[in-house]
Amino acid sequence: MTRLAGAGGAGRRVVLLVGAGHAHVEVLRSFAMKPVPGVDVVLVTMSQFTPYSGMLPGLVAGLYGFDDAHIDAGRLADVAGARFVEGIVIGLDLAAREARCADGSIIGYDVLSLDIGISPAAAAVPGAAEYALPVKPIGGFLSRFDDLLGQVRAGCVCRIALVGGGAGGVELALAVAHRLRLVARGAGKDPGSIDLRLVTRGSRILPALPAGASRRLERHLSSRRVALLCDARVTAVAADHLQIEGRPPLPVEAVLWVTQAAAPVWLRGTGLPLDPLGFIQVDAGLNVRRQSGVFAVGDAVRFGPRDLPKAGVYAVRQGPVLADNLRRALVGDPPRPYRPQRDNLVLISTGSRHAVAVRNGLMVEGDWVWRIKDWLDRRWIARYQNL
């Protein structure tokens, strides 16, 4: 067993960042712009390149290339003077202030921050973990999606189901429909031969948004020839079909899984305070409850003051607060509170360069909405690509 630390040296303190999510890239940027003397920063993440979730539909649709939508976390860590460790944390010793990695190495810390993301909840459905392609973690999804495109080109796959009727599922279904039909045309095949279905257990798609938004996106699904199955609870996934409660088996050759999020299983053995669903409980300052010097952000947390949707916009806005609170923790100052907005702007792209915007019950759409979304996304990611 190997014990690692930061850059080392007597009297130096270690800030350990686990995961390279949206908030942690802002922390690295903050420490790059204003280093803290006597402090080593260590970033542990499973991949050098971090995809920006806001640009995932554009990546899937073929509107962006890899470099457009990824942050080089290794380079960002280097600019910040941080140590980059490509690995996976699988356990914590809170008393000893140590993190255990999958390769057996141990990393000590003084201040810890977790930005570890989530996975679609597939474990509760028999066969889903084995046969479905989960959209998260995004890095793993993108490589397997490329394999799926190859199978479509070869004519091996033409019947595809996407399970999940929230904003992420609808946006991904539209992006997939756009890309698959481009691929089919490029391979000299009939785009109409692609049978794509969006399956949701709800009575309508986008249950968190106004009914008008649901109807509008249903029209976009129809125009993309995505068949919608509502009130359809998937009870099992097999290699060649979906089993849906009260319905005959639905023949499929590929299944994309974009259902309700699940927290990482390894958290259950850490001693961290978790809610009944396994998400880390944090207070208003993003400090893990009853754990001094331990912070958590992003989709894997249950924000104490009020429950937040699992949306990347919250992690993006937690970043500056987290960076400040890590500095405060190093000198013993109390954290400042993170105050999430009450109603965030929802931008849903429709496959091509067109998008729908929803906020406070108001709705607009058009190519100009997509251009605004594209500008916002490119502006955000440029902060970390062009230091």
Walk me through the topology.
Layout: E1 3-4, E2 13-18, H1 22-33, E3 39-45, E4 49-51, H2 56-61, H3 66-69, E5 70-72, H4 73-79, E6 83-86, E7 89-93, E8 98-101, E9 106-108, E10 111-114, E11 119-120, H5 128-131, E12 133-134, H6 138-153, E13 159-163, H7 167-186, E14 195-199, H8 211-223, E15 226-229, E16 234-237, E17 241-244, E18 250-251, E19 254-257, E20 261-262, E21 280-282, E22 294-296, E23 301-303, H9 312-331, E24 346-349, E25 355-359, E26 362-366, H10 367-385
Parallel strand pairs: 1-9, 2-3, 2-10, 3-6, 10-22, 12-19, 13-14, 13-19, 14-15, 21-23
Antiparallel strand pairs: 4-5, 7-8, 8-9, 11-20, 16-17, 17-18, 24-25, 25-26
Verbal overview:
The protein is an alpha/beta fold and 387 residues long. The chain is built from ten helices and 26 strands. It has helices spanning 22-33, 56-61, 66-69, 73-79, 128-131, 138-153, 167-186, 211-223, 312-331, 367-385; strands spanning 3-4, 13-18, 39-45, 49-51, 70-72, 83-86, 89-93, 98-101, 106-108, 111-114, 119-120, 133-134, 159-163, 195-199, 226-229, 234-237, 241-244, 250-251, 254-257, 261-262, 280-282, 294-296, 301-303, 346-349, 355-359, 362-366. A five-stranded parallel sheet has the order 6-3-2-10-22, covered by helices on one side. Strand 25 (355-359) and strand 26 form a beta hairpin. Helix 1 runs parallel beside helix 4 (73-79) and helix 1 (22-33) packs across helix 9. The mean pLDDT is 91.
